[in-house]
Amino acid sequence: MPKFDVSKRDLEGLVGKEFSVEEWEDLFLYAKCELDDMWEENGEIYFKADSKDTNRPDLWSAEGIARQIRFALGFQKGLPKYEVEKSDVVVYVDEKLKGIRPYGVYAIVEGLNIDEEALKQMINLQEKVALTFGRRRREVAIGIFDFDKVKPPVYYRAAEKTEKFVPLGYDEEMTLEEILEKHEKGKEYGHLIKDKPFYPLLVDSEGKVLSMPPIINSEITGRVTTETKNVFVDITGWELNKVMLALNVVVTALAERGGKIRSVKVIYPDFEIETPDLTPKEFEVELDYIRKLAGLDLSDEEIKDLLERMMYEVELKDGRAKLRYPAFRDDIMHARDVLEDVLIAYGYNKIEPEEPKLAVQGRGDKFVEFEDAVRELMVGFGLQEVMTFNLTNREAQYNRMNLEFGKDYFKNPPAELVEIENPISPKWSALRNWLTPSLLDFLSQNTHEEYPQKLFEVGKATLIDESRETKTVSESKLAVALAHPRVTFTEAKEILDSVMRHLGFEYELEEVEHPSFIPGRAGRIIVNGETIGIIGEIHPEVLEKWGIEMPVAVFETFLAPLYKEPYL
């Protein structure tokens, strides 16, 4: 979670009121932060804020925390207003950047009065947004420049690796290639563009380099000081909506310092946009839903007041709240997200716990008991149980399995994958939709162990289901993998036969062509006319991609179609 330092004096100047240190411990909670540490330096008190929400980059600076507290305390209510005045500045985006780093969005903020604390927060916000929200600059990289040293129009273009400029912190020119090899930021982030045919470069009309996204700014324009009054903000990345959100976060933070926001026209080869776009976003929620889940007897007006203190514009109509909320937020995806804001404004510490008044006797879920019975059965067959992660990635679920993403392979795996919008790591960027890749991953990490290796897992696969509120469903599955020099389809089928016999089901096998399996040695498992799984010998190309040198036979099946009582 992002941690950053803020000055008590600076925070109170932005909020407009002084507080005791003890009061600040509670105030940080309004901004979804905790006071992690406190110290005194040169007669000034500093706090270390520990943010508890990776989806709220607008709260990762003194400006964002102060704004949230100002509204939560009722000093302001409703939607924060930011005026955006059009400028005549244009940025042209090079078509050659499409496969390199395709999107750039920009803004100008004028009339700033930057002191040392404001400068620290500006740098901090750049770093935290790029590091956490931007996935170490892969998705979002930020540059802030002294606008008075920039001569528009500006060009975001693909540059030859031999082009030169003076990088920030240096006093001599270096080629773009040298920067990646010698500059500390080039060494740290060079892998993001090193294999590209061209490198991104942001230059003005005089050919002056502003930056080499996402690596380093130039020394000439990229050094912002307390003397800087007007800044040019540059955000680059791979997804337009992400870079737009990051731009909104940065410019509104600067506006909290008294800056005036001016927009920039960005011209792409096939479209053009005006940035930033601070148009409020909209959402709608049922008031009874808020009351029910909050467990609080709140009137409509009380809910409205709490939401207005969390920066919503609220219109009550027919038992619903029509909401407009700031463009620097992108975390409102469900009514529960609105509920959380209501409870933050109300105060979690004010909620009185109540003992449940239900006279019931608990027992285990019957389907969970069935899953446990299947586990006992598999252990009885001499198989070793493994428990692997539900989180995985598209590479493991499709590419390493010789599969084409988006194509339905008889439900193993289905055509779609539930992917995480802001994954912490590319390795954990999706929820698996079948278990076999997880077992192969396990085998690949245990090639030094003795064979035969006979594994099974009873685990969850997450599938897309548009009929459900969450648009997803977690299905229980059984997967078995057998690895040794003489393993065959027949050995896997013998275990499948025994499973079906013990569970009291008859099944059929129908030969199929499936890229993950050797042709002629794969079949779909059919129960009551429905395909519930697949069995076969893993294709040598798949084994090679996983680094497995032994033959592997597997089967995988959904468990829900095999559930009935008694289980065994």
Uncertain stretches of 5 or more adjacent residues: none
Question: SS-based structural class?
Answer: alpha+beta
Task: Output the CATH homologous superfamily of the largest domain.
Answer: Bira Bifunctional Protein, Domain 2
The oligomeric state of the chains shown is single chain
Overall mean pLDDT score? 92
Task: Specify the CATH architecture of the largest domain.
Answer: 2-Layer Sandwich
> In CATH terms, what is the fold-level topology of the largest domain?
BirA Bifunctional Protein, domain 2
Approximately how much helix is present in the residues?
25-40%
Distance between the terminal alpha carbons, to the nearest Å?
A: 47 Å
Number of helices: 15
Radius of gyration: 29 Å
What portion of the residues fall into strands of 2 or more residues?
25-35%
The CATH class designation of the largest domain is Alpha Beta
Total strand segments: 28
Query: Main beta sheet, described?
Result: 10 strands, mixed
Shape label? globular
- Summed up, the domain count is 4
Features:
568 residues, alpha+beta, Phenylalanyl-tRNA Synthetase, Chain B, domain 1, Phenylalanyl-tRNA Synthetase, Chain B, domain 3, seven-stranded mixed β-sheet, 15 helices, 27% helix, RNA binding, magnesium ion binding
